[in-house]
Amino acid sequence: MSQTITLYVDGACKGNPGLGGWGAYIITESAEHKICGGEAETTNNRMELTAAIEGVLFCPMDAKLIIWTDSNYVKQGITEWIHGWKKKNWKDVKNPDLWKKLDAVCQGREIEWNWIKGHAGHAGNEMADQLANQGAEETAAQLKNGNAVETKKKAESDWLLNDPFGLDASDDEEESSEDEIYDAESTGAAGDAPINTWAEDALDEAVPADASRIPAKQASNAPIHPAVVITPATLDLQGPRQLILDTETTGFYFQDSDRIIEVGAIEMINRKLTGSSIHIYINPQKPVGESENIHGISDDFLKDKPLYAEIAEALYEYLKGAEIIAHNATFDMNFLNMEFTRAGFGALSNVCKVTDTLSMAKAKHPGQKNSLDALVRRYEIPQRDRTFHGALLDAEILSDVYLAMTGGQVSFDIDALTHSESAQGNASRQAVQIELPAIMPSEEELAEHENWVKQFEEKHGTPCLFAK
């Protein structure tokens, strides 16, 4: 690769359909480029697609492209749905001309597609939005001066259209109807769009950014930032979720602008680890300073990691509703509450129960050291290399400590031995008769036992409890 180029692409539409524009903010290793255009009669989806096409075409073939879009429609369409569309020969797909062109211009290139929350203050996304609106304004001026061309002809030749409210994009469940759900052309004006067809972008514009703003159906399908590593569960368990969590930060004081740089959490249900976890590194936009001596995470390592605002939604959706278990939980929750509030989601503690294992340890072992390392030694938990603290590693260790402090692993489920006693299915416990095998010692083992008992009595001068 000769170079890496970052692109922010966006579209805007004054009415949907209506006058629209597209913009691409392109950052190379040596310069910044701003391109835009527009169309007299278009839709938001078409503008979003055109911005991506024109941005890619602007860049040399041998460059690696990192593309950021606030359109789920574009990001998921080009990375996921397009394969099914091709198999169906583009049947029932809206805007097939632009999708085919985007697919063609991406061939032979190395491209990393990313979603970013729109209108959240990110400089690159805001610039792309400004360019898209500029494209629409310039197109309007051309129309006013009589320089317009036929809009239908321009649309057929892949000129782009954009929607400033993101109403062309929405969450979807069936591949066969992505365009019907995501394209707001069928819904009329923004205010007419039914809520279950809104895009993430529309939600950002139309409702406050709080825990209840996204329906459960949409939240489950929300796009995940590529830097957010979520491991799926390997055990299908039912019950309240507990998340053993740890964070790493630039310092100790959330009030003094210290920031989170790493979050790790593992899921537990019914005292069993499900295998599900989440792990994220975050760019704090400030030097990590002396805290690097604790966690070993450098400024250079974090410089290409996402900002908290970019991963906040995925993290919030994973954590909310669960019981958060943390060691010195006040520290972690203060930072998480601060970061989520900055990102517009409100305090995490409002939607999660919190359990502090440090407080538990102090009550259980008063007057003793109760650091995580001290508890590991006290409960004889297998040692791990903790030269540096790591959020996910500490969460894994804390899960062992929590289980040990609260009674160890779970016992056998006696409910599995019950059966139905009535036609209505009411179950009751039954006496279980189990004949345990008796394993008798050999003559040699008996002789060794008697010899050991004799030695014990001679040494201590008292009868041994284990004598026959």
TrEMBL record:
Its EC number is 3.1.26.4. It comes from the Bacteria. Its cofactor is Mg(2+); Mn(2+). Keywords: Cytoplasm, DNA replication, DNA-directed DNA polymerase, Endonuclease, Exonuclease, Hydrolase, Magnesium, Manganese, Metal-binding, Nuclease, Nucleotidyltransferase, Transferase. One of its GO terms (molecular function) is DNA-directed DNA polymerase activity. Mg(2+) 1 binds at residues 10, 48, 70. Belongs to the RNase H family. InterPro entries: DnaQ (IPR006054), DnaQ_proteo (IPR006309), Ribonucl_H (IPR013520), RNaseH-like_sf (IPR012337), RNaseH_domain (IPR002156), RNaseH_sf (IPR036397), RNaseHI (IPR022892). Residues 1-137 form the RNase H type-1 domain. Monomer. Residues 169-183 have a biased composition (Acidic residues). Residues 162-193 are annotated as: Disordered. Its main location: cytoplasm. Coiled coil: none annotated. This is Ribonuclease H. It catalyses: DNA(n) + a 2'-deoxyribonucleoside 5'-triphosphate = DNA(n+1) + diphosphate; Endonucleolytic cleavage to 5'-phosphomonoester. Binds 1 Mg(2+) ion per subunit. May bind a second metal ion at a regulatory site, or after substrate binding. PANTHER family: DNA POLYMERASE III SUBUNIT EPSILON.
